[in-house]
Amino acid sequence: MIVLSKAGVLDSAHPLATDVPLTAGSWPVTVPGVAAGDDCFIRRFWQC
Hints:
This protein has one domain (1-25, 32-48). 0% of the residues lie in helices and 25% in strands. It is built from no helices and three strands. A three-stranded antiparallel β-sheet has the order 2-1-3, with no helix packed on it. The mean pLDDT is 84.
């Protein structure tokens, strides 16, 4: 799962992508409109 994190809060209720293979070197996502700033991150998670 790929999610957006803003101000340290994960938006896991609205993932940017799901079922992304761990071996994928890259994966296209569309980042939603957010206010400009330097506190946004895209996080990659996988389930074991």
